[in-house]
Structure formats: structure tokens, C-alpha cells
Amino acid sequence: MLDTGRRFVPAAVVRSQILDGMALTRMNMLQLHLNDFCRFALDLPSFPALRLKGFMAGQYSVEEIRELVAYAHDRGIRIVPEIDIPGHANGLSPLKGDGLATCEPAPGKKPSPVDATKLFDDPAGKTRDVLGRVFKESVA
Question: Is the predicted pLDDT of residue 54 greater than 60, yes or no?
């Protein structure tokens, strides 16, 4: 597993060091963890709120993921991109403005780490709609 949700690794490094090293040692599957509690490592054009800046910068474009998958395939390696929901849904919190709803603590209470990542399945279905669009664009 390569946890790019926590620490970004540039696509060139993934190709030259990780995938080539995996091919040399006959490893054939790489789980690409794309989100964590603090960031989302995939730049989706329809969701500019997810673009990272500052010390958290570093994201793959959808095209870079396609290129990595093709590069790995040529070496007999399968890449399995993973968006960890609901476990690391907090990395999607910038999408609250798009309709993503989360479980919020009572006024005046601090959220516990367990509660910080809970998505709210709102009656209007906005959270499901936002997640559906994120997943659809991620696999495009």
C-alpha cells in the first residue's frame, strides 16, 4: 500500500522507484490510498475545494492516475486506487459547501476523533449525490 493520502509521492517517483522496484521483485498489486483524515490526493476538476495548498500540497490529476495504471499494467502490476469512505471521510470536508453533510457535535462540544469522520446520510440525499459525483469523476 502506498499511502498518498497522508504523504504525497510524485507520479515520477511512483513510476521510477516504486513500480519499477515492484516489477523487479515480481510484486503485482499496489493499493493506492488516495485520502486520509487531512487530505485528498486526487485533483478532481469539478471539485476545486479539494485542491490542496501549502504544506499539504501535492495531488495527482486523473490523467496522471491513468498513466500510472497503464505504466504498471505494462509491468504486470495492478493498481487499485482507494478512496477510504467512511473511515477517512474527513479529507472530503472541504465539500461541505457542495452539499456533503457530516455529523456535527452538539454546540460547545469538541468533536472526538471517532466522530470527526462520520458522514450524515441526510434525508435530501445531498451527501450521497456529492459522493456519487466524486466517485464517478474518480473513475472517469
Answer: no
